[in-house]
Amino acid sequence: MFIWAVNNHHMLEASLGYFINPLVNILLGMIFLGERFRRLQWLAVLLAFCGVLVQLWTFGSLPIIGLGLAFSFAFYGLVRKKIAVDAQTGMLVETLWLLPVAAIWLFGITDSPTSHMGENPRSLNLLLMAAGVVTTIPLLCFTGAATRLRLSTLGFFQYIGPTLMFLLAVTFYGEVPGKDKMVTFGFIWVALAVFIVDALYTQRRLRRG
């Protein structure tokens, strides 16, 4: 869904989905796993929610693609949390399940100038294979974290990804963020700071107790 959104000029809506996704993770953790928050964690969730509301207001309509990305990835995290399988084994099984679908799509359905690897330049094929490696590594990290962290905690720290993308866009690609983006990131950065402070405070209190 993300690749389709990027290729069909829905990048803004796709990026919005990554802002909504952590909140959906938090919601699923509360509903299906019985996870509960402390007061500072609730404050962090409220701040992050306000930041997402700014983007929803700016977008101006119901973001179907963004919601689809947010809920699909959140339920993926929930399933990985429920299934007691290590990251490497789980990734292998998922890849084997998707291999026939990918093969049918590549050799039988898609027809684009770059879909025939035998006719592509070697440099392009190498880049495509490298993209697979670059995609697999963060997925392995995500699935490993999903089995070790609370789903709500995992969801909250997923705001780090969009934040790093924001910093790359500004520092390396010269993009100028609008006021709405700055307000959104302001809310989210403060929320992350509150969440981290609460985690450190709780950890110290448990050590003393």
What does this structure look like?
The protein is an all-alpha fold and 209 residues long. It folds into two domains: 1-84 and 152-209, no CATH class; 86-146, no CATH class. 78% of the residues lie in helices and 0% in strands. The protein has nine helices and no strands. It has helices at residues 2-7, 11-32, 39-59, 64-82, 87-109, 122-146, 151-156, 160-171, 179-208. Helix 2 (11-32) runs antiparallel to helix 3, helix 2 packs parallel to helix 4 and helix 3 (39-59) packs antiparallel against helix 9 (179-208). The longest helix has 30 residues, at 179-208. The chain is globular and about 65 Å long. Its main location: membrane. Belongs to the EamA transporter family. One of its GO terms (cellular component) is plasma membrane. Keywords: Cell membrane, Membrane, Transmembrane, Transmembrane helix, Transport. Residues 2-54 form the EamA domain.
Ends: how far apart?
A: 47 Å
Mean pLDDT level: 80
Q: In DSSP terms, counting alpha (H) and pi (I) runs of 4 or more, how many helices?
A: 9
Overall spatial form: globular
Strand content: under 5%
